[in-house]
Amino acid sequence: MNFTEKVIEVIKNRNSNVCVGLDIDLEKIPSILKNDPDPIYKFTKEIIDSTKEYAAAFKPNFAFFECYGPKGIETLQRITEEMGEDIVKIADAKRGDIGNTSVRYSKAVFDFFKFDCVTVNPYMGKDSVLPFLEDESKGVFALALTSNKGSQDFQMQKLADGRYLYEKVIESLNRWNEKKNLGLVVGATHPNMFEGIRKLTPDMPYLIPGIGAQGGDLENTVKYAFVEEKRLALINSSRGIIYASSGSDFAEEAGRKAKELRDQINSIIE
């Protein structure tokens, strides 16, 4: 089974397109956990346990674990094990370097941490992406059109032929997708671009940030990013789910928000 087939299967089996982003900030976790011997692990595990029923994917942001040094790396490894095998595990690491370095990055993400896929910055070119695509069962979500305001600086620049730079990048990524294990990161803050991007990449899965705190348009995102019964997209929410409450009910509220997002997506599809 290639990576795209796994994404389709998980979404179908779990009846969900929700990706829970795990951007764990020690300053934002509930005060009741601050005196716990291992507050980052405790908080993250409870979030995973409370939201897994409603999610198709988990996406830990590496920076939010790496900043705590060896303890953060250990926690990242432990929580990946907690996710189980029946869900898509996304390493939000935004790797991208020359070939031999990308080989080592891929070994770390896939062999050490045991993730299913990784976010990759493709702007160093083909040799920075291909090492992550060697195993068809492991996947890449390549940055195509991101949700941040800075996406205007380069990605939205017009080329001499009239296309945007991001369209040129997507065209190249499409060619590199020989093993059907490459997807795109496309921000929900660009709903007017989705229809054109989907026409370019009808069979690619998307990872879609920007819903929730960044103000992305959920209805138009679902309308244009999904592909009929395949539902080829994972819609990420981080802060809107994991920090839904700062009280003792933080896990319960996170679960409620994950369910709410899942149900909103499903109601739009129906």
What does this structure look like?
The chain has a single domain, classed as Alpha-Beta Barrel (TIM Barrel), CATH 3.20.20. The chain is 43% helix and 15% strand. The chain is built from 11 helices and 8 strands. Strands 1-2-3-4-5-6-7-8 form an 8-stranded parallel barrel, surrounded by 6 helices. Helix 5 links the parallel strand 3 and strand 4 (117-120). Helix 2 (39-51) packs parallel to helix 4 (70-83). The radius of gyration is 18 Å and the shape is globular. It starts with a helix and ends with a helix.
Summarize the structure.
By secondary structure, the chain is of the alpha/beta class.
The percent range for strand residues is 15-25%
How many domains, in number, for the residues?
A: 1
The overall pLDDT, averaged over residues, is 94
Can you count the helices? 11
Top keywords for this entry?
TIM Barrel, 8-stranded parallel barrel, single chain, 270 residues, alpha/beta
Topology of this protein?
Elements: H1 3-14, E1 18-22, H2 39-51, E2 57-60, H3 63-66, H4 70-83, E3 88-95, H5 99-112, E4 117-120, H6 126-129, E5 139-145, H7 165-176, E6 182-186, H8 191-200, E7 206-208, H9 218-225, E8 233-237, H10 239-242, H11 250-269
Parallel strand pairs: 1-2, 1-8, 2-3, 3-4, 4-5, 5-6, 6-7, 7-8
